[in-house]
Amino acid sequence: MAATSFHQAIGTLQPHGCFINSGCHQEYGNSSLQLISKGFRVDIGRRGSSCSREWSFVVSQASTSQASVLNPVSSPSKKTTTDSQKKSSEAALILIRHGESLWNEKNLFTGCVDVPLTKKGVEEAIEAGKRISNIPVDIIYTSALIRAQMTAMLAMTQHRRKKVPIVIHNESEQAKSWSQIFSKETKTQCIPVITDWQLNERMYGELQGLNKQETADRYGKEQVHEWRRSYDIPPPNGESLEMCAERAVAYFKEYIEPQLLSGKNVMIAAHGNSLRSIIMYLDKLTSQEVISLELSTGIPMLYIFKEGKFIRRGSPVAPTEAGVYAYTKRLAQYRQKLDDMFQ
Ligand SMILES: O=C(O)[C@H](O)COP(=O)(O)O
User: Fold this and answer.
1) From the CA of 103, how far away is ligand 1's center (Å)?
2) 52 and 102 inside one domain
């Protein structure tokens, strides 16, 4: 499909940077998603200087391998995937660092101390939910800490599929038996939430509860930066990022990767450092590169897992040009289905 007819399909886009709730913005988003959901590929180019930028689009036939992905809305929990389906199946992985916590607000080292969100952190979690509201989620993993669990639950209040996230209780036989759901139909409308300490924030040892600025004044900025961001240097009697990775990445490989391989779409709500260790694994970062990796509170990151590889797709921001770029054919189909279901 030539670019000109694509332009005709959506009219002439406003130059970049001048979008202020421009209808064109939304129209572009939807048109691109429709094209992607029909197997086209939309590559976005920019020309010209900053605000007078023109957008160029190349619309081409996407690779046929996308055509055989499972449709996530009608059968997200399909158990029997054949090897070829597994090979071609694609799954979404969403990572979210918890919203601002009460000790983030006070600039205190938190680590494994179980501190809730601030009002701003609640708002961040809800905003994160809006940004992923069109992306399929079949199973949710959180740490054992309330700030991550609050973030996951608040985010899911914004999801358009309206499934109910249910925290799974397997801590004892009685807990398992007393939390059973006895309706098959109700179960299909639920999303299991698995909580596990292995995804907890790195344990900050003797820094937990100390003020970060006061600690830097006392031990020096460089020393505190080394404790906070280096790979293998632990804080006093605490965990280094490497030690945190030994549990968080091990857990990801053992429990979460098999879910993705079976085509399940996963969301993980965790912490600045437990997620840094997982992203280091996903992006194959070196111990030098990971030093500069910082995660903001409440900003979702999207990866596509396909044929054993993790492809970073940026932070979904609803169907803006950046958001659309994050969409694959399968995600565009899912969003189209949601539009059809909840028009
Ligand atoms: O544990 C904490 O204090 C924060 O979650 C992360 O802190 P950091 O950004 O200093 O690692």
Assistant:
1) 9
2) no
